Structures are given as structure tokens and as C-alpha cells.
């Protein structure tokens, strides 16, 4: 149909339709640019990292450079279905390659570079060539201090007068339409697709302007018709004519006979400490021309050594030094991890102004030496090989390790101890209520109970005041009654002891004194019993199976072990103490049965089995804050510290040590420790709720004073009883004019019989005569005076 076709995207075809032109540089041309750059940089090996299959087509000329002996090329494809490329980048890092050609979409470039930085591929040892023509539109400040050599090409020069004026006109035009409209386009962020579209429209407009003399006729065309547009060929010839070339936003717009861009000019740009800098050009005739002056790297000395550098930090998933962060959303980069070690590195990075990316040691192998090969493993191996800059976790500082790596001063001091379950309490005793008093005290209490009861009985019989008229209405009863029979005496004392009342109330001073002293005795004893009983019933009696490392080593019922490779293992292996040698021999003989891979596995083994785990005291403290059935047994077997590991003779060791010291002095490390030990992730669940020590039974030494008071009081009461008896006998003998001796003998005889609680009233001669006289005065021997006392009745007049 002879309609001119203007393209603005890349096209791999070598020949084009006669009526089409393409403003995008041909991939073969761009590939030649990258070939010259690789040669100029002197790369003898490099890795091509590409996103889709089109990338290999665009880099075809690079692939032709492959020579098995001189030029080694490795090809790695990023997963196009995923945004997380860290695993592929880690594989690339392990290969040891330092030079890379990166071909990917500009929309994904920044994230890929960020992930490369996170896995440690953005150090001063690494170089990149970026193939995207929009490379200059990204904000690369994050990477400009990392030391990596990052180079790219650009088709648009933001400093070009035409570019700046055109962008300004766009901004003014947009503001003229909408004064409040936000315009994000700037010369530095102008993408190639936008510029090529502008140049394509300008190209077509200039072609139409050139064809005005032809008398252009515009008429509709039918796609199914064989009719062609008569002016199509003329327009495309105007476009391809070299005399009609012009400067556009993407440089000189000029085409070859096939309709591809010719006389192409590209800028070579490189990321420096001050941002993107133009360091050279490439054109179709002269090729690569570097104009830059090499910029020296910042010296690795002084206070600003680590400023804006990116360090790879190794850590492990080990509580509480490193966790995978719990989140409902997918997290990326350093945000995936948290813990004491993570926070500590962050605090140091703030002080020293460096960036960092975490890499996880998934097998939790911190580093030990193989006795056969003498090779180190784990995290320390990676530090020695330069795969990481720092390592932080519960990594102990030992002389053996300090021989191959450097450590900061310890950020935490600790020692080896034993983690074990709290012993089970003794089973309940049916007669545990007897435990507050020893058996001697119980025997004494029973004895004094019987003794005081009998004493009250005897004193009641001795004391005349305890003999009372059972019928108050009868003034001269035939007999008197004593309430302190043997049964009542026993009942009165037991009632008092049990804190219960009784209807018996002592009358005589002597019996009241005995009762008061007995009540005081029972008050102290009952209070002491109650207090001690509460302690016995609420506090469990615990008997630990072992109390120290010697007890653990000398028993056979409980297994014990440690982490299979690490500082604790080395401590027992290298110890010259016979006890520790014995324990190490036991552990090596039992092998996998007692050795575990990490502290978490050791903790679980302690919880599930009869097993004691030997580990660092700080981790024991962490576990006992969360698992209330666990405890630390024994003190510390040694003293050591945790430090941050780095390569031997590292130039930033002093900086790191100074930062750690400042954090310790400011209390920040203590604050972080409290956060991760006592607050986060279930911390504080096992706060001390009191002592578990069993109270000792109360012996006679504890309550002997109460018995003494009881004995003294009872003695005084007995003395008062005899005084009362003598005084009453004396009064009676004088009143009735009888012999004191005979009256006393008569009372003692009656008391000594110990029979009954009634006492017949003794009649004397004078009393009989007075009674007969009283009866004759009434005149009626059958008349008996009656008195009423009632709460319900009262009489105003005498009864007759």
C-alpha cells in the first residue's frame, strides 16, 4: 500500500521493508559498543546476566567473543516470573566472577542492583556494564558509594540545549492547560521511548514539509485493494535522504539505505562518588573514545572509612540474635530479619554511616577447624574468603578463631553453663498437715493438753469458788456443783486449742489464770502452725537430680551434650581438667545422641528428654525467660565474650571496636539486651514469683518459749488454787467456829475422792437453829417461796 512506516523500538532484522525506517539503534550496533567496552576494560572473563531470550539476541556480538582459553563467558538468566533474584545472584557470587554485563528492563534494573548489593555483589571488586539506554534516568545514589564500577550508555544527553529547551516547552504547555498539574519530566529522567516518539513525529513533519511541492493527495485506502498511495515512496525517500538529516532529542536523525540509524552518537556514562559522569563517547566511525580522568578511590583510612560503603554481614537464625521477621506481607532485603544482632549492626551503621546487607548462614555453622584437612568451615570460612565483610551472632571469641579472623572487643560477656528442666516437686503426703511441727512438738502439745486438762480438773476441785449452787433460787442448797469435771476440763482445753468456744467459763482467779495462759499458748501455737502450714501447702519441696557439673558428670541417668561444632565443643575438647575430659569422652562416645545442630534443637531436647544441654549462659538466660520449666544449673565453667568477626587485619576493626565501646558506655547494648531477652518474642513470661525453698519444720527451739510461759503460768495458778482453798477454809472455820485443821482435812478428803461434780453443803449447828426459826415464822411448813425471773413476764404486785 506504500504507506511509510516509522518504528521506535528495537528490531533484530538486518534488512527492512523499503517503506520503513527505525529510529531505535540496531541491536548489532549496540552490541558492538559493549564489545569495545569489554575490550577496553580488559575483561578476560565476565558473566552475562539477562532477563529474557531477547537479551541474548541483543548481545550476540558479545557472545562471539567467547574463547575457552582467553575469554570465558558465563550466561545466567534471571527468573522472569519472579521479582526475587537473590538465589541466582548468590550462585553468581559463589562462582567468584567480578565482571558483569546486565541486560534487563529499566523497570527492574534498580531492584536487581539492590538485590545484588544485598548479596555482596556491589563491592569495589565488582564491575558492571548496563545495556539499558535509560540507565541514566535512575536515582543511583544508593550505589555510588559502594565502590563498584557501574558503566552504561545513553542516547539522550540531558545537558543538550535542544533537550532542555524541549522539556521546558512541554512543562510550560502542560502548566498552560492545568496550572495545578504536576510535571515529573526533567531532562535527566527523559526516557528513550518518549524522545524517540518525539523525533518520529518531527521526522514525519519535516518529510511532509519537504513534500509540499508534490501536491499531496490524501485519500482513503482499502486494505484488501491493490491500490497504493502514490506519495508513500516519495515521503520515505525524503526521510532517508542524508541531506534532510536533523538533530533530534536522540541526536542526529540519519538513516542508511536499509532504514536503520546511521552516524549514531552514544555517551558513555559511569557512576562515580558524585553521581553519573560522562566519561566518553562512541560513534559509528571512530568507535569508543574515553575522555575521563580516572577518579581515585577514597582511601581506606580515617573516620570516614566506612562512609557510604555497603558491607555484607553474615548472621544466623539463632535466638535472639537473628530471627526471620513475622509478617503477613512479603518482606524484602534486610527487612526480613530482626533480632539483637540485627539491631546492633544497625546502631553501628548509624554511627559509622555505612550501608549493609544481611546474608544468612542457614546451616548455623559458625566456624570450626577440620582436624584432618586443617580447613575452617562455616561463617569464618566465608569471612576468610572475602565472601562477607562481617559476621555477627552468638559467635564466641576464642584464641583459635582469633588466629584466622579479627574480632571487635566483646559486646557481651558470658560463660558456659548447663540448661536443664526444673526438677519435679515431691508427691503430696496424706499427713502433710503434720509437717508444720516436728514430732517432738506434737508430743509435747499432746502432753500439755492432757496436763492442763487434768490440772483444771484438780484446781476446780481445790478452788471453793468453782463450787457453785446449781439452783440459784435455793439460798441454802443441800449440795454444790463443780463445772470442771474431767470431761468438761478436756472439752474446755481442746475447744480453746481448736479456736472454738465452750459454755464453760472459769470463775476462780486460779482457774481463770490457767485458762488465760492456755489461751495465750494456743494463740501462739495455732498462729505458728497456720503460717507454717500455708508455706508447706503452697511451696513445693524440690529435690534436683544434680546441683553442679560434677554431679552431672557422675550420674548415669541423665544424658548431656553440646552443640556439635563450636566454642563449647572446643572448650571440652581442649580442656586439661580431668572432669571436663571425662565429660568430653562421654559426649564423643555417644555422638549424635548427645550433640545437636543448634541451641534451639538443644532446648527442645531438654524439654522432651532426660537431657542436659551445655551452652552459653546468655542463651540460657534467654530460654529461661520464656520456658518456665527450664533453669540454669551451676555457675559458669569459663569466661568469654561475643564479638563481631571480620577478615584478618581488617582496616575497619578499630572503627567497629570503638563503636561497640561507645554503645556499651551509652547503655544502648544493655537496652537492646533487655528488649530481646525480656520483652520481645515472649520475654518476661517467667518472672520470679518467689523462692522455692521448703520451710523447715518448727522444732522445740522455735516454740519452746511458749511452753515455758505455759509452765510458769500453770505453776502460779496452782499456787493461787491452794491460796484460795486455805483462805476459804480459814474464813469458814472462823465463821462457824470450827477447827481450821479439821475443816482443811475435810476439804482435802473430799477433793482427793475425785468423784462427781457436786459437793454436799456441810451443815453446822448454828445454821440448823436459824433454819428452824425461819420456818416457824411462816407458820406453814409447806409454803415454799418462789421467785420468777423471766424475759417474757413481769409482776407489779406480789404473788399470794
Automatic annotation (TrEMBL):
<dbReference type="GO" id="GO:0045211">
    <property type="term" value="C:postsynaptic membrane"/>
</dbReference>
<keyword id="KW-0628">Postsynaptic cell membrane</keyword>
<dbReference type="GO" id="GO:0015276">
    <property type="term" value="F:ligand-gated monoatomic ion channel activity"/>
</dbReference>
<dbReference type="Pfam" id="PF01094">
    <property type="entry name" value="ANF_receptor"/>
</dbReference>
<dbReference type="InterPro" id="IPR028082">
    <property type="entry name" value="Peripla_BP_I"/>
</dbReference>
<dbReference type="InterPro" id="IPR001320">
    <property type="entry name" value="Iontro_rcpt_C"/>
</dbReference>
<feature type="binding site">
    <location>
        <position position="401"/>
    </location>
    <ligand>
        <name>L-glutamate</name>
    </ligand>
</feature>
<keyword id="KW-0813">Transport</keyword>
<keyword id="KW-0812">Transmembrane</keyword>
<dbReference type="InterPro" id="IPR001828">
    <property type="entry name" value="ANF_lig-bd_rcpt"/>
</dbReference>
<feature type="domain" description="Ionotropic glutamate receptor L-glutamate and glycine-binding">
    <location>
        <begin position="320"/>
        <end position="385"/>
    </location>
</feature>
<keyword id="KW-0675">Receptor</keyword>
<dbReference type="GO" id="GO:0038023">
    <property type="term" value="F:signaling receptor activity"/>
</dbReference>
<dbReference type="InterPro" id="IPR019594">
    <property type="entry name" value="Glu/Gly-bd"/>
</dbReference>
<dbReference type="Pfam" id="PF00060">
    <property type="entry name" value="Lig_chan"/>
</dbReference>
<feature type="region of interest" description="Disordered">
    <location>
        <begin position="760"/>
        <end position="786"/>
    </location>
</feature>
<keyword id="KW-0325">Glycoprotein</keyword>
<protein>
    <recommendedName>
        <fullName>Glutamate receptor</fullName>
    </recommendedName>
</protein>
<dbReference type="InterPro" id="IPR001508">
    <property type="entry name" value="Iono_Glu_rcpt_met"/>
</dbReference>
<keyword id="KW-1071">Ligand-gated ion channel</keyword>
<keyword id="KW-0770">Synapse</keyword>
<keyword id="KW-0472">Membrane</keyword>
<feature type="binding site">
    <location>
        <position position="396"/>
    </location>
    <ligand>
        <name>L-glutamate</name>
    </ligand>
</feature>
<keyword id="KW-1015">Disulfide bond</keyword>
<keyword id="KW-1133">Transmembrane helix</keyword>
<keyword id="KW-0407">Ion channel</keyword>
<keyword id="KW-0406">Ion transport</keyword>
<feature type="domain" description="Ionotropic glutamate receptor C-terminal">
    <location>
        <begin position="310"/>
        <end position="679"/>
    </location>
</feature>
<feature type="site" description="Interaction with the cone snail toxin Con-ikot-ikot">
    <location>
        <position position="573"/>
    </location>
</feature>
<feature type="binding site">
    <location>
        <position position="616"/>
    </location>
    <ligand>
        <name>L-glutamate</name>
    </ligand>
</feature>
<feature type="transmembrane region" description="Helical">
    <location>
        <begin position="705"/>
        <end position="727"/>
    </location>
</feature>
<dbReference type="InterPro" id="IPR015683">
    <property type="entry name" value="Ionotropic_Glu_rcpt"/>
</dbReference>
<feature type="disulfide bond">
    <location>
        <begin position="628"/>
        <end position="686"/>
    </location>
</feature>
<comment type="similarity">
    <text>Belongs to the glutamate-gated ion channel (TC 1.A.10.1) family.</text>
</comment>
<feature type="transmembrane region" description="Helical">
    <location>
        <begin position="439"/>
        <end position="459"/>
    </location>
</feature>
<feature type="binding site">
    <location>
        <position position="568"/>
    </location>
    <ligand>
        <name>L-glutamate</name>
    </ligand>
</feature>
<feature type="site" description="Interaction with the cone snail toxin Con-ikot-ikot">
    <location>
        <position position="662"/>
    </location>
</feature>
<dbReference type="Pfam" id="PF10613">
    <property type="entry name" value="Lig_chan-Glu_bd"/>
</dbReference>
<feature type="transmembrane region" description="Helical">
    <location>
        <begin position="517"/>
        <end position="539"/>
    </location>
</feature>
<keyword id="KW-1003">Cell membrane</keyword>
Amino acid at each position: 500500500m506504500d504507506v511509510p512506516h516509522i518504528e521506535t523500538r528495537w528490531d533484530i532484522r538486518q534488512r527492512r521493508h523499503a517503506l520503513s525506517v527505525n529510529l531505535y539503534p540496531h541491536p548489532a550496533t549496540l552490541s558492538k559498543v559493549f564489545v569495545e567496552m569489554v575490550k577496553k576494560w580488559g575483561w578476560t572473563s565476565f558473566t552475562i546476566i539477562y532477563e529474557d531470550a531477547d537479551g541474548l539476541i541483543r548481545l550476540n556480538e558479545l557472545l562471539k567473543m567467547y574463547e575457552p582459553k582467553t575469554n570465558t563467558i558465563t550466561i545466567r538468566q534471571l527468573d522472569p516470573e519472579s521479582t526475587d533474584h537473590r538465589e541466582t545472584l548468590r550462585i553468581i557470587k559463589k562462582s567468584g566472577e567480578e565482571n558483569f554485563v546486565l541486560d534487563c528492563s529499566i523497570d527492574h534494573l534498580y531492584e536487581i542492583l539492590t538485590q545484588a548489593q544485598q548479596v555482596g555483589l556491589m563491592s569495589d571488586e565488582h564491575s558492571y556494564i548496563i545495556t539499558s539506554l535509560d540507565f541514566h534516568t535512575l536515582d543511583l545514589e544508593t550505589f555510588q558509594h559502594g565502590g563498584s564500577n557501574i558503566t552504561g550508555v545513553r542516547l539522550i544527553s540531558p545537558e543538550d540545549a535542544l533537550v532542555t529547551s524541549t522539556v521546558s516547552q512541554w512543562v510550560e504547555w502542560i502548566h498552560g492547560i492545568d496550572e495545578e498539574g504536576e510535571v515529573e519530566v526533567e531532562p535527566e529522567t527523559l526516557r528513550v521511548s518518549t524522545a524517540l516518539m518525539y523525533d518520529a513525529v518531527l521526522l514525519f513533519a519535516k518529510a511532509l514539509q519537504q513534500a509540499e511541492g508534490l501536491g499531496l493527495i490524501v485519500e482513503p485506502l482499502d486494505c484488501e485493494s491493490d491500490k497504493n498511495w502514490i506519495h508513500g515512496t516519495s515521503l520515505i525517500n525524503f526521510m532517508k535522504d542524508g541531506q534532510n538529516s536533523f538533530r533530534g532529542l536522540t541526536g542526529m536523525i540519519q538513516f542508511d539505505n536499509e532504514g536503520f540509524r546511521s552516524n549514531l552518537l552514544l555517551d558513555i556514562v559511569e557512576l562515580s562518588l558524585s553521581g553519573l559522569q560522562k566519561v566518553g563517547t562512541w560513534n559509528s566511525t571512530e568507535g569508543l573514545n574515553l575522555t575521563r580522568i580516572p577518579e581515585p578511590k577514597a582511601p581506606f583510612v580515617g573516620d570516614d572509612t566506612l562512609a557510604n560503603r555497603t558491607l555484607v554481614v553474615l548472621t544466623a537464625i539463632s535466638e535472639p540474635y537473628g530471627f526471620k521477621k513475622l509478617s503477613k506481607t512479603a518482606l524484602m532485603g534486610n527487612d526480613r530479619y530482626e533480632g539483637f544482632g540485627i539491631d546492633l549492626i544497625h546502631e553501628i551503621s548509624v554511627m559509622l554511616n555505612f550501608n549493609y546487607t544481611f546474608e544468612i548462614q542457614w546451616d548455623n555453622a559458625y566456624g570450626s577447624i577440620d582436624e584432618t584437612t586443617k580447613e575452617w568451615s562455616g561463617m569464618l570460612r566465608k569471612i576468610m574468603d572475602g565472601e562477607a565483610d562481617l559476621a555477627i551472632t552468638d559467635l564466641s571469641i576464642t584464641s583459635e578463631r582469633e588466629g584466622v579472623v579479627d574480632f571487635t572487643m566483646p559486646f557481651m560477656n558470658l560463660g558456659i553453663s548447663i540448661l536443664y528442666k526444673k526438677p519435679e516437686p515431691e508427691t503430696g503426703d496424706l499427713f502433710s498437715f503434720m509437717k508444720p511441727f516436728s514430732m517432738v512438738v506434737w508430743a509435747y502439745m499432746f502432753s500439755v493438753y492432757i496436763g492442763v486438762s487434768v490440772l483444771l480438773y484438780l484446781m476446780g476441785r481445790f478452788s471453793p469458788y468453782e463450787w457453785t449452787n446449781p439452783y440459784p433460787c435455793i439460798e441454802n442448797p443441800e449440795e454444790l456443783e463443780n463445772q470442771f469435771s474431767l470431761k468438761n476440763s478436756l472439752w474446755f482445753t481442746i475447744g480453746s486449742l481448736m479456736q472454738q468456744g465452750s459454755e464453760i467459763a472459769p470463775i476462780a482467779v486460779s482457774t481463770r489464770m490457767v485458762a488465760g495462759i492456755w489461751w495465750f499458748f494456743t494463740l501462739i501455737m495455732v498462729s505458728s502452725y497456720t503460717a507454717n502450714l500455708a508455706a508447706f501447702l503452697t511451696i513445693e519441696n524440690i529435690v534436683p537430680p544434680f546441683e553442679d557439673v560434677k554431679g552431672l558428670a557422675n550420674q548415669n541417668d541423665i544424658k548431656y551434650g553440646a552443640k556439635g561444632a563450636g566454642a563449647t565443643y572446643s572448650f571440652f575438647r581442649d580442656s586439661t581438667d580431668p572432669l571436663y575430659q571425662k565429660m568430653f569422652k562421654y559426649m564423643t562416645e555417644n555422638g549424635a545422641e548427645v550433640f545437636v545442630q543448634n541451641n534451639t534443637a538443644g532446648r527442645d531436647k531438654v524439654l522432651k528428654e532426660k537431657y542436659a544441654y551445655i551452652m552459653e549462659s546468655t542463651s540460657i538466660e534467654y530460654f529461661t525467660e520464656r520456658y518456665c520449666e527450664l533453669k540454669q544449673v551451676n555457675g559458669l565453667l569459663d569466661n568469654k565474650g561475643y564479638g563481631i568477626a571480620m577478615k584478618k587485619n581488617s582496616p575497619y576493626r578499630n572503627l567497629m571496636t570503638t563503636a561497640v565501646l561507645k554503645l556499651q558506655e551509652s547503655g544502648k547494648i544493655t537496652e537492646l539486651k533487655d528488649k530481646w531477652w525480656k520483652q520481645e518474642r515472649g520475654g518476661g513470661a517467667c518472672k520470679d514469683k518467689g523462692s522455692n525453698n521448703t520451710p523447715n519444720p518448727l522444732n522445740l527451739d522455735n516454740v519452746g518459749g511458749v511452753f515455758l510461759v505455759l509452765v510458769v503460768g500453770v505453776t502460779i495458778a496452782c499456787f493461787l488454787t491452794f491460796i484460795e482453798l486455805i483462805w476459804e477454809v480459814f474464813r469458814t472455820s472462823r465463821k462457824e467456829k470450827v477447827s481450821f485443821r479439821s475443816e482443811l482435812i475435810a476439804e482435802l478428803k473430799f477433793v482427793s475422792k475425785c468423784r462427781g461434780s457436786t459437793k454436799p453443803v456441810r451443815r453446822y449447828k448454828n445454821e440448823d437453829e436459824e433454819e428452824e426459826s425461819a420456818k416457824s415464822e411462816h407458820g406453814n411448813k409447806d409454803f415454799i417461796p418462789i421467785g420468777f425471773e423471766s424475759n417474757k413476764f413481769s409482776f407489779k404486785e406480789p404473788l399470794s
